[in-house]
């Protein structure tokens, strides 16, 4: 199992850049799997603490019921456009795939999940701005960097 703290310990600079992308705005996107296996896209808020990445939902929300049935989840950072005059200063696009572990419900019955990391990816524009830089981290495999032209 790999938690947020494992990534921070192993790759602190990369983890800081990923977290910055997820906290650029309040609401990001998550994908869960419906009962029939089709995807469900939902808005959500992310909570990073020193140990874990967490997310929650209102009591009885379909996205929470999806995670109870099949805990696989994909998370996407809030979207921010790259500046047209210099896309190299854009912070990038971050994604996290993982397994949701339910935690005790809030007093209001809300759902809370702790995310076990299975993949973390950060994509940004390279310098010169003629290619993308793709960094990906997987537990046990570490950080890899590649370029796409």
Automatic annotation (TrEMBL):
CC per GO annotation: cytosol
Keyword Oxidoreductase tagged: yes
Gene Ontology MF: a single term: coenzyme F420 binding
Record keywords: Oxidoreductase
Organism superkingdom: Bacteria
Name the UniProt record assigns to this protein: Pyridoxamine 5'-phosphate oxidase
Originating species: Micromonospora echinaurantiaca
């Amino acid at each position: 199992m790999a938690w947020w703290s494992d990534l921070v310990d192993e790759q602190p600079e990369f983890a800081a850049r990923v977290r910055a992308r997820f906290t650029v705005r309040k609401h990001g996107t998550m994908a869960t799997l419906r009962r029939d296996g089709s995807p469900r896209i939902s808005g959500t808020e992310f909570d990073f603490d020193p140990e874990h990445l967490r997310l929650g939902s209102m009591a009885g929300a379909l996205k929470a019921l999806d995670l109870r049935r099949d805990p696989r989840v994909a998370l996407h950072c809030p979207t921010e456009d790259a500046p047209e005059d210099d896309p190299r200063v854009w912070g990038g696009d971050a994604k996290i795939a993982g397994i949701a572990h339910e935690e005790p419900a809030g007093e209001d019955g809300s759902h809370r999940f702790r995310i076990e990391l299975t993949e973390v990816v950060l994509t940004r524009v390279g310098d010169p701005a003629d290619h993308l830089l793709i960094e990906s981290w997987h537990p046990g495999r570490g950080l890899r960097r590649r370029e796409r032209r």
